[in-house]
Amino acid sequence: MDKQDELRRQRQNLKEEMEAADRAGIQHAGEAGRKRQVEVDGPAARLRDRNSPGPDLSMVMDIPVRLTLEVGGSDMPIRDLLQLHQGAIVELDRMAGEPLDVMANGTLIARGEVVVIEDKLGIRLTEVVSQAERLQSLR
């Protein structure tokens, strides 16, 4: 719970900083006497403003992401699942040697192959999924 509380606090602080920056930007624009209208809708205004620098991603770089590897899967009725015992073999829907799916928080981001590094398993990425393919998988 401590990590979650800390993340909530960080999110709240970020929100307050963004709101303060929006208020300061609106006040500054009014003080400068500019004739262009200043948008008041907060973060969306900054994203639309082409003159502003790119978004600062430093705030999200420490957010934890769960990385999982999917070897394959199998559909079976509960009757068969309950009959499994130690040493039982379950046939998966992938062929041997086929790349594994690399998922970040349940979203496919890459494919790769298993490697062994000093008695530990790892994965070598062989393909990074395109942004279009990632968006399609979310639908």
UniProtKB/TrEMBL annotation:
Disordered, as annotated region: 1-56
A Pfam family reported for this protein in Swiss-Prot or TrEMBL: FliMN_C
UniProt subcellular location: Cell membrane; Bacterial flagellum basal body
Membrane topology label: Peripheral membrane protein
Major subcellular site: membrane
Domain Flagellar motor switch protein FliN-like C-terminal: 59-129
Organism placement in taxonomy: Bacteria, Pseudomonadati, Pseudomonadota, Gammaproteobacteria, Cellvibrionales
UniProt protein name: Flagellar motor switch protein FliN
Name of the encoding gene: fliN
Keywords recorded for this protein, A-Z: Bacterial flagellum, Cell membrane, Cell projection, Chemotaxis, Cilium, Flagellar rotation, Flagellum, Membrane
Keyword Ion transport: no
Origin superkingdom: Bacteria
